[in-house]
Amino acid sequence: MPPKKKTKPRKPAVKTKAAPRKAPKAKAKAAAKAAEPVVAPPKPKEQVTIAKAKGRPMLSWVGKRPLRAVTAFPAQLVETFVPKGADKVPVADASIWKDWPAQYPKSGLLFHGDNKEVLAHLLANGFRGKVQLIYIDPPFDSGADYVRKVKLRGPAGTTKVDGETYTLGEQIQYTDIWANDNYLQFMFERLMLLRELLDENGSFYLHCDSTKGHHLRCLCDEIFGADYFRNEIIWFYENKLGTGGQTFDSLHDSLFVYTKSKKWTHNKLLVPVKEIKQQPVTQKIDGERVWLRDEAGKRIYQESRPDRSLGDVWTVPILNPVATDRTGYPTQKPAELVEKVITASSNPGDIVLDCVVGAGTTMLCAQRLGRRWIGCDINKGAIQTSAKGLLGIIADQLDSAKKTGRQMSLLADD
Fold it and tell me: What residues form DSSP beta bridges with 288?
């Protein structure tokens, strides 16, 4: 007879306690969590290819390196700042967000980090060719350290630290001192990345002064193509105090404007005329423009328009040192100037990008004008200043939306 198979003794059944019932709040939290959209995991680091610069002339410098590709790191390595409530402020029609990358909230994005790495990250994560307007106010190679005043607890007054040229009541925002041709390589690489992010019908504004403006113009000609240069806008600030030196006082900055194609957004800006005058009424007859006359043979006149199209010289005062919108950031630009740029070269719902945010003026103006925006800066002070300003604007917009809602409700009740 075949041997009997050994059977293992059965273990006695163990009674398990019933799971405690979830409280209503816990159930609500679980349901809300389940309803949240699934966020795609960040991509591993990858090489982002960059198209060659084909424009002429080409500027050469010691150590010039072409940018063929750049490494994009995972999103966790990029710190983002999204002000509370930003996603509740209506920017424009909801359909504008349909092509927005799923891993980001439907609101403005403020990154803290090296702009080269942030721009590469944006290219690798769905923003290539999506930005309608880029405005940057980069370092000018001015040879200066820019500081801001900070409040300290303790006795009044300032104290110098041995070996330092600034006081304990000051904080360096950034150093605009460059060795040899490092500045040109720095700008070259970032301009190449910005071109890749720009929409085919988008516009690019580069804000600069006379220090490196001639070099930057050559770089932009090389990267965007000289045929795609549109304007040199002169920002004239007549309220700046003179220095009384041996040279003429510098009272303007330049904004170089380039596009990526032969089609771009251009909304005319109107400014009031200084004086309304009587102008003769003319009409084109048989190819010639003639003055119209009344029955008595006298010329017919009419008043000139109260406004005219803005040209390429923009008169905007620099910020007063005691202005209420002063943030303390040393290179802050007036909102009036940036609003002109955004209004002229974008439409509500468009994406506006600034990779050197400084005081955050670009994002604040974009938020106020109903544009989507992306900003970044490597300086922590710039991020703090920008985030503070954005929180204030978004809070005002939410409050305004609530008031409008109440007013609409009252009208409906009537």
Answer: 285
